[in-house]
Specification:
Elements lengths: L1 H7 L3 E7 L10 E8 L6 H28 L1
Antiparallel strand pairs: 1-2
């Protein structure tokens, strides 16, 4: 995914946390984070920024799921 985004020079990249369903990647989205690709991005630099966003997205998703369970 990251290599493809870099090779095609996509302007944005996304990190998604979604509910697990029997079908691959088809569950409802819980959290979505967007990264703007920079002209100077390397695979390593983008991967690091994506990991930071993944961590934030997972933590936010946990909070959302906990709030839903309390409702």
């Amino acid at each position: 995914g990251l290599n493809y985004a870099l090779s095609k020079r996509f302007p944005l990249w996304g990190v998604v946390v979604h509910e697990v369903t029997p079908e691959l990647d088809s569950g409802p989205v819980i959290t979505f984070k967007t990264l703007t690709l920079r002209p100077t991005d390397t695979f390593t630099a983008l991967r690091e920024r994506a990991r930071e966003q993944e961590t934030e997205a997972v933590l936010e998703s946990i909070q959302i799921i906990q709030r839903r369970a309390q409702s």
